[in-house]
Design goal:
DeoR-like_C, alpha/beta, disordered N terminus, repressor, 38% helix, DNA-binding transcription factor activity, Arc Repressor Mutant, subunit A, Rossmann fold, 15 strands, 2 domains
């Protein structure tokens, strides 16, 4: 049985322990989990699990119900909350991607908490030209004195800080970036890339069409999640960065398509 850290992964008060992150993703995938079930799964006491889930409920990720916990809301989670899920995996992925981006590159970057982590990991680079439709990413990039950061005009989506829709698509179509970096909400069993909104897919596909090297960043839980808007296939990209190996069927499709796969977590050691 895998062991899990009991302390937060960073000093950030919103950051979750690894076990809390796994609990949140499990409930996100299934909709409900019982306290006894979770205690058995993680080989800890029910008291320990209650402490974990109480912390998740305090952060607004989950809601206590009789016998267990369920999602606090239906659909996608608030951006601030998504940032703390799979925190360690996102940092490992971000560091590996940053190592592949040369100074002076032009980089188109999609919405998402993992792409945001990549930008933070690139702040020691010089003379990057960043194009993004996410204000969080833009503001992080703007802290690097030598970066040029461009964003589209349009309506800002509340909570996420995104600009999506036709303006974002036209924005990415106006560049030819050295690298396109994007995430997805989920990956279907057949390798289809899934998101929650058609506009998210359209912007992501515009980045893919207008970059010389496409990079998909995702943690392994994306292979276990679901979203309902299809757009593209995982084998369409040039490079996949993930914290664990993809499921066998998807791994075979990636190998057949010649997609480079980099495993950034402990499995890579």
């Amino acid at each position: 049985m895998k062991s899990y850290a009991t302390e937060p992964l960073s000093a950030n008060a919103d950051t979750l322990s690894e076990r809390q992150s796994e609990i949140a993703e499990l409930v996100r995938a299934t909709g409900f989990a019982g306290i006894d079930e979770l205690a058995d799964r993680f080989s800890v006491s029910t008291q320990t699990i209650r402490k974990d889930v109480n912390g998740l409920c305090d952060k607004g990720l989950l809601r206590r119900v009789h016998g267990g916990v369920q999602l606090a809301s239906v659909g996608n989670l608030e951006y601030r909350m998504r940032k703390v899920l799979r925190y360690s995996a996102k940092q490992q992925i971000a560091a590996a991607v940053a190592d592949t981006i040369p100074n002076g590159s032009s980089v188109s970057i999609s919405i998402g908490t993992t792409p945001e982590a990549v930008v933070s990991a690139m702040l020691s680079h010089t003379n990057l030209k960043i194009q993004t439709n996410n204000l969080n990413i833009a503001m992080i990039g703007n802290t690097a004195g030598s970066f040029d950061v461009s964003i589209p005009g349009g309506l800002i989506r509340r909570g996420d800080g995104d600009i999506i829709g036709p303006a974002a698509v036209a924005f990415f179509e106006s560049y030819k970036a050295d690298f396109g970096i994007f995430g997805v909400a989920a990956v279907d069993a057949d390798g289809g890339l899934l998101d929650f909104y058609e506009e998210e897919v359209a912007a992501r596909q515009a980045i893919l069409r207008n970059c010389r090297t496409s990079i998909l960043v995702l943690d392994h839980m994306k292979f276990e999640r679901n979203a309902h808007v299809r757009g593209g296939h995982i084998a369409d990209v040039d490079h996949v960065f993930c914290d664990k190996a993809p499921p066998p069927g998807i791994a075979s499709a990636l190998a057949e398509a010649g997609v480079t796969v980099t495993i950034c977590g402990k499995e890579s050691n």
